Fold each of these.
Amino acid sequence: MGASIHEVARHAGVSTATVSRAMRGLPNVSPQTRQRVARAAAELGYVVTHSASVLATGRTRTVAVVAPYLTRWFFAQVIDAAGETLADNDYGVLLYNVACAESRARFFERMPLRTRVDAVMLVSLRLSDDETRALRKLGIPVALVGVASEAFPSVRVDDADGAALAVRHLVDLGHRRIAMVAGVGEAATAVPAPADRRRGYLEVLRGAGIAVDPSLDVSAAATFDGGVEAMSRLLARRVPPTAVFAESDEMALGVMRAVRRAGLRVPDDVSVVGFDDHDLADLMDLTTVAQPAQEQGALAASLLLDALETGAGPPADLVLPTRLVPRRSTAPPRGSAPLGRRDAPPLTRAVAGPRTAC
Amino acid sequence: MGASIHEVARHAGVSTATVSRAMRGLPNVSPQTRQRVARAAAELGYVVTHSASVLATGRTRTVAVVAPYLTRWFFAQVIDAAGETLADNDYGVLLYNVACAESRARFFERMPLRTRVDAVMLVSLRLSDDETRALRKLGIPVALVGVASEAFPSVRVDDADGAALAVRHLVDLGHRRIAMVAGVGEAATAVPAPADRRRGYLEVLRGAGIAVDPSLDVSAAATFDGGVEAMSRLLARRVPPTAVFAESDEMALGVMRAVRRAGLRVPDDVSVVGFDDHDLADLMDLTTVAQPAQEQGALAASLLLDALETGAGPPADLVLPTRLVPRRSTAPPRGSAPLGRRDAPPLTRAVAGPRTAC
DNA sequence: TTGTACGCGTTATCAA
DNA sequence: TTGATAACGCGTACAA
């Protein structure tokens, strides 16, 4: 389409090599030459052909972002923030969605990103050995968000710890019949959060000497509706739980909804805790465990940029903090001794960690 | 890195041309030759180098998707569906976020996608003349989602019509003091929906002979919190509205929240209608105007694929239907004549237009 | 059906 | 500081 480097060279009365140097701001070009080249390029509307540059340098200035969902809160936040950091450094984002087991298998088999990107970032995907191998074989930097791994650097929160925060809060309020609502995806093993958060849930129960009732541990789609469905099942039991820990705020909102639709009240009849600190959590007075989603995306992007610009640093496993954000969806169980009321939820308002740029 | 086409050729005892033909499934290759090439490629782990292929053919098999938000419901739906359609056809998605006026200006000026993609899809961006020109100059197919344009094919709904559906519903219920809650973004002119929906709002009011009160038309951030803020302002008036049309479900949920926080009830004291049919709308019993978001993304992607594979078809302007989904957030105004109750909201449950694949 | 040889547009090496 | 030229790896006329 546009002019090529040769025409610019001719136009400016220099060689193509000089044009290339001038265009990229390399040092060894005299100011006047640089000027002439710049003018010629502008006049001809010259633009470096990306593929030619890639072919010659071996660098694509592109990062692949691989995620099982785009529409769920956590994933959108991570991808958004990562994209911003990358764009700020003149890297493009090639987006891959591996929602279902089938597309995921196809992705790791064909590796469509091969020869197309300089680095890969995977969001909340627990990798099989084969997948890990396939990624390793790419020979480019890889970073994970939301999962620990011995193979690659990662940025995440401690999901078990976070869940423990939530469940301990419920135990401290006096609850003993505490349910867990977890999400199941297309591929059950795709996303690690549910299992890790369940681990935290179980640990706290055991630590508190509470007998674990497996029938209080229910799974459904990781959506609002899934939360409704799961809670409906719990409410259908002869003895429903007095509190619920939902693995995500999205599900927690569904849980709250189901409670209210059953004519019960939150937190009077059922306490609910979520995970994420979704934008809606504050609005809906949902007690939750906040995790810094944007930060995780931005940080993972930085990790990759560092590896690309300066050769890999130490293969970090950055664990960002979670924190309990008590709101009005949790309270002592009905009929608990008044002394249970020792700490009324202080109604802390979460500081919204505003989007960094713009 | 990996083996090149030459090594595969040598390994298979054929020429590079034959390897190229065999790898791409072109017709003129004998079955045995094809076999030999395939085996050689597999043994050497050969993969076509993308940039070299692009340089030789001029085709990138990549589409740029440009959007001002990733995290808002409509945008996530559109991008998700478009990405799926493109991936199914072996196209990659290069994602560009132009959230703020600054990044938008930089994007259209530098056009970082130039020479990197075969086509461009823009989501809910009203293009200036300069931006249109810049896109035209790329000389590649362009498609718009959520906006009409004389310059490029588009897929959208009629926002004014949709809004009219909502407001007429309120008027039919007997409301006359109807507020509008609209979103404002970083760049006020970035997204066209607010203005178009406002137009529908005003038209219905005028058509019904209702005097338009400009102070009932409030704007805030296009988020849950923005909805809360806008409604709080409306409730602070000496005479608050009896009904609110919010430009998006996200804002509508905030509006509902503000109403309830003020000790009022939905719909008894205030009716609320949204726009989108967000996953949460059903859950929250929010009456809304449904628009097919996934379909718009998928359709726009198909448009681009058609243009790429078969040369541009007619520059379509595909307008998909909206429909009112009455739920429990709307009712006749308090104190209205009983006959106003003529049609109790039938509680239609929206059919969720399930994600097509997987 | 297969092979030869050139072009795609840059960058990098080396010599001047 | 600048220029000539050889890669980079593939696709494709054209010839066989």
Amino acid sequence: MARLPRYLQALIAAGDVDQTTISSQGLARGAGVNSAIVRKDLSHLGALGRRGVGYDVAGLVDEISTVLGLSTERAVVIVGLGNLGRALAAYDGFHRRGFRIVALLDADPAKIGTEVGDLRIESADDLEDIVADRGAQIAVLATPAPHAQDAADRLVAAGVRAILNFAPVHLDGPDHVSIRRVDLSTELQILSFYEQLQAGTGGGDAVAGG
Amino acid sequence: MARLPRYLQALIAAGDVDQTTISSQGLARGAGVNSAIVRKDLSHLGALGRRGVGYDVAGLVDEISTVLGLSTERAVVIVGLGNLGRALAAYDGFHRRGFRIVALLDADPAKIGTEVGDLRIESADDLEDIVADRGAQIAVLATPAPHAQDAADRLVAAGVRAILNFAPVHLDGPDHVSIRRVDLSTELQILSFYEQLQAGTGGGDAVAGG
DNA sequence: CTTTGTGAAATCCTTCACAGCG
DNA sequence: CGCTGTGAAGGATTTCACAAAG
């Protein structure tokens, strides 16, 4: 259910505006999807809405948070402190949503010992010990592409169960480890494709950008 | 065709290793997908493979680059120079793939005039003029969430035809503008969900992470 | 004997439309 | 009435399986 986080965002926005109840259509607008799909998704979590009224905002926030496993804090390790890694380390969105960064690892001796935010960069040589000691469950991978698979293998062996990969390569891993990928230049390339399409038409035709 | 950039990456990796030809299965491994789907995707671009041999690496790179519109340089403007925006501005992956950053815009007077890489941050007040003058076709949005929709509206009005949105909100826009979203905390939340699932099982069951 | 290109089957996901509850 | 919950319909995408080509 990749849409739950979207709903959560829309719900929090609604709560900020002191809305106590929200309809599937209101949620759909906030999340940028169809209202039928909102109802179907939410009915999957149990019958949480009241007919004729809508969904209780606070109740749904709790329910979705629980389902997503956000009720307990998750320990995150960031591997690779280049431009992107550093920005991620400084990004407060993680902290705000219950993710605690427990370590920053890099292989470059020049970086080791320097501080980012209030954490010190440590040596990637000690990856296994650090992951185990601090109970890191999730890793954010922002190394150069050639080192990503190796780093991933070590993270998996050390007990990490989920990896968010920013390196522009496909990573292989065992089935019990979830690997997601975010690739900035891939996203831009997809946009480039659509942009080109638009340049062709007069700009009138519909192309879902989604 | 959201998979073409992946194929491109796998092809470039194959070329780096002096491979002159590649099978659908080899490409599939590199891109992390099924080989049948590779063949179907590529057959859609025309018959480019040779039976019994595979696909010509250099030829395919050219073909996919053309389809994605990467053969001409695209002008990109980055709006919002916080941690993430700055990292994106410094990210060389864009440049390497034919995207040229033509402007950096921010609303914060303290940031205006400072340099990031070899570009100076300019005032968001001049957004319309700057986008028009420099022919920016694609915008990267990394503003705080509350300003994202407003910035998007102005970008669209100024003639931008594609937006890559890093702000954690859904953006509305006309059909002729493609809007894609990358949300880091959403990604982490999805991982959190899978992580939780894994913690429940002994770690043996299969859960696709992709 | 290898590997593409592609109909057909299977699967997944979305939308429609409406019964039923409040 | 308004709005949820959901079967059924419709679309889209993925996988299978194999004929044809080199």
